[in-house]
Amino acid sequence: MKIRRSNRLVDMTRYLLEHPRSLVSLKFFGERYDSAKSSISEDLGIVKHAFQTWGQGRLETIPGASGGAVLTPFFSEENAQAAINTLVEKVNDDSRLLPGGYVYLSDLIGQPETLRQIGKLIATQYVETDVDVIMTVETKGIPIAQSVAMYMNKPFVIVRNSSHITEGPTVSVNYVSGSVQRIKKMELSRRTLSSGANVLVVDDFMKGGGTITGMKSLIKEFDANLVGITVFAEGHPVNSQRLVDNCTSLIKVETMDGPEKKIHAQAGNFMENVFSKKMGN
Amino acid sequence: MKIRRSNRLVDMTRYLLEHPRSLVSLKFFGERYDSAKSSISEDLGIVKHAFQTWGQGRLETIPGASGGAVLTPFFSEENAQAAINTLVEKVNDDSRLLPGGYVYLSDLIGQPETLRQIGKLIATQYVETDVDVIMTVETKGIPIAQSVAMYMNKPFVIVRNSSHITEGPTVSVNYVSGSVQRIKKMELSRRTLSSGANVLVVDDFMKGGGTITGMKSLIKEFDANLVGITVFAEGHPVNSQRLVDNCTSLIKVETMDGPEKKIHAQAGNFMENVFSKKMGN
Question: In which residue ranges of chain B is CATH 3.40.50.2020 found?
Answer without folding.
Answer: 77-278
